[in-house]
Design brief:
Blueprint: E1 5-11, E2 16-19, E3 25-39, E4 42-55, H1 57-65, E5 71-82, E6 88-99
Parallel strand pairs: 4-6
Antiparallel strand pairs: 1-3, 1-5, 2-3, 3-4, 5-6
Protein name: Replication restart protein PriB
Keywords: DNA replication, DNA-binding, Primosome
GO molecular function, one term: single-stranded DNA binding
Length: 100
């Protein structure tokens, strides 16, 4: 079963590229998502800051197009990562990413 998440947000930190020991390119982004959602018959403001990782050769092309302030649409899946200090972090792994 595949569950895809679609999120629109603004890039808030400069995009960063890295490469795994296996040679896979990774684009690291941090985005802010803001929206209004309905809950219990009422409207509420929602805010989310989340790390986004795009992996593969296509990630480099995306990195060249994105800057702080870019608004993007990301489709992918959520995964739990841990920092070197053991702090859990929720990360959105992008399978599709486009600048809006």
């Amino acid at each position: 079963m595949t569950n895809q998440l679609l999120l629109v947000g603004e890039v808030v930190k400069p995009p960063r590229m890295s490469k795994s020991p296996a040679g896979v390119k990774h684009l690291h982004l941090v985005i802010d998502h803001r929206s209004q959602q309905q809950e219990a018959g009422m409207t509420r403001q929602c805010f989310l800051r989340i790390q986004v990782v795009a992996s593969g050769d296509w990630a480099q092309d995306q990195a060249n197009q994105l800057t702080v302030g870019s608004v993007i649409e990301v489709q992918g899946f959520l995964n739990r990562h841990e920092t070197s200090n053991g702090v859990p972090r929720l990360v959105l792994h992008a399978q599709q990413l486009k600048k809006i």
